[in-house]
Specification:
Rossmann fold, four-stranded antiparallel beta sheet, 18 helices, Beta Polymerase, domain 2, alpha/beta
């Protein structure tokens, strides 16, 4: 049985998602300790999901374990998640991996995050064959959505959307003094998007001390820890995208809420914004103290605000993508159903061919030197096995695999697990 407990921007506040995502590495091992056969946790800036394979663990136990592992009281989670089970789990994950459930439909970052979730589970030893197959098929579905639909062109990433929202405040990107806080993959995407828009005056600060190598690699200026506050005060656009919490607040601006801001000059001598400084917080957990929005001359654009401005889905691209996702989920379940009867089919074939070899032995001892009897018997065995094998797969696809197992036991005394006939069946 597959279970997914999901909390996302559609069901939960960003504050709760932050709390869930602070220590995601503790959740999967806790689920395994609670009796799950496998667990994979997907934690991103706008969703937290636990995928579980379990026979003796129900959704309530999964939710309780998540609450204990994250240190969040179950009462705080009420109403902020929903549960997906069994046949619906594949379609849900395939849609998530394809960007259909993101803040901005079609955003591309999620595909890599899904792959990294599986890699993390492998490293922790919490994955399972069923979850491996599920997540691998999710990546295949995502690639097909990208290749055969226009969704990736219709959707835009959070980075791109945030800078589009900033366009209303910025007349000339080349005149902006930009400070980028963070040096991870999100920072690299942000930097590339800034350059697409024409930004050239860009510095980078890293709370973890990685600014220098990042700056050398990308041809921008590194900012040392001692200079961080000064550069922050002098920058007109500040973008944070680091895993470190609260890296920017009133202290870095060296003034209290309500105090006037010094307006940094630009190459043209005047500043093109309504506000002298714009701060974009792309961090998860939140990187920026919301109190800076009360500083005079400072505007804050955070994930909550960006979410409110996410564009409507482009219906044709989205509909085509959902068709691909549904087909991929159906294929996943069909293959899984076939696999569920494979041991029974193998048991039947092993039994029949065991009987066949015994009869062929007898025929040889009776003088079938040319092998005509053997050839005929092998052909007959193949013909006889064709219909039950085909019917087994049909029943499995209809969710009736148990009927085939029961028939195998009733007619041949065969156990799918052992593949051995009972004495009564072979006597």
């Amino acid at each position: 049985m597959l279970i997914c407990v999901t909390a996302s921007h559609k069901t939960a506040s960003f504050e709760l998602l932050e709390r869930l995502s602070r220590q995601p590495e503790t959740v999967a091992p806790s689920l395994m300790a609670a009796g799950a056969q496998g667990a994979v946790v997907l934690a991103t800036c706008n969703r937290f999901e636990a995928y579980v394979e379990a026979e003796d663990v129900d959704s309530e136990a999964v939710i309780e374990t998540v609450a204990q592992a994250t240190g969040i009281p179950s009462a705080d989670l009420d109403g902020s998640y929903h549960v997906v089970e069994d046949a619906h789990v594949a379609e849900h994950l395939f849609a998530v991996a394809s960007g259909l459930e993101s803040v901005v439909s079609g955003e591309g970052e999620i595909a890599g995050q899904v792959r990294r979730a599986l890699s993390g589970a492998r490293e922790q030893g919490t994955t399972s064959p069923q979850l491996e197959r599920l997540f691998q098929r999710a990546s295949q579905a995502q690639r097909k959505v990208k290749n055969v639909t226009a969704l990736h062109r219709a959707g835009r990433s959070l980075v791109r959307l945030s800078l589009e929202l900033a366009d209303s405040r910025i007349a000339d990107w080349s005149a902006e003094r930009v400070l980028l806080v963070g040096t991870g993959s999100y920072a690299a995407v942000t930097l590339a998007t800034l350059r697409e828009r024409g930004a050239v005056d860009i510095s980078v600060y890293s709370p973890s001390g990685r600014a220098l190598p990042f700056a050398k690699k990308h041809g921008i200026r590194p900012v040392a820890a001692d200079d961080y506050a000064r550069v922050a005060q002098a920058s007109s656009l500040l973008i944070t995208c680091t895993s470190t919490e609260m890296v920017l607040g009133p202290a870095q601006f060296d003034r209290e809420p309500g105090a006037a801001a010094g307006c940094p000059s630009t190459s043209s001598g005047t500043h093109p914004h309504t506000h002298s400084q714009l701060v974009i917080d792309l961090g998860m957990p939140r990187n920026v103290d919301p109190a800076i929005a009360q500083l005079e001359g400072v505007a804050l654009l955070d994930l909550d605000t960006i979410r409110l401005h996410a564009p409507l889905e482009e219906l044709h691209a989205t509909d085509a993508a959902r068709d691909v996702v549904r087909e991929a989920a159906e294929s996943f379940h069909l293959d899984g159903s076939r696999q569920s009867v494979t041991p029974a089919v193998v048991a039947l074939r092993t039994h029949i061919f065991g009987l066949l070899e015994a009869e062929i032995d007898r025929a040889r001892r009776r003088g079938d030197e040319n092998g005509h009897v053997e050839q005929a018997m092998r052909h007959l065995a193949g013909v006889l096995l064709h219909t039950p094998t085909t019917r087994a797969h049909e029943l499995a696809a209809e969710g009736r695999a148990d009927e085939f197992h029961a028939a195998l036991e009733a007619l041949y005394g065969l156990s799918a697990e052992s593949g051995v006939a009972s004495d009564a069946a072979t006597a």
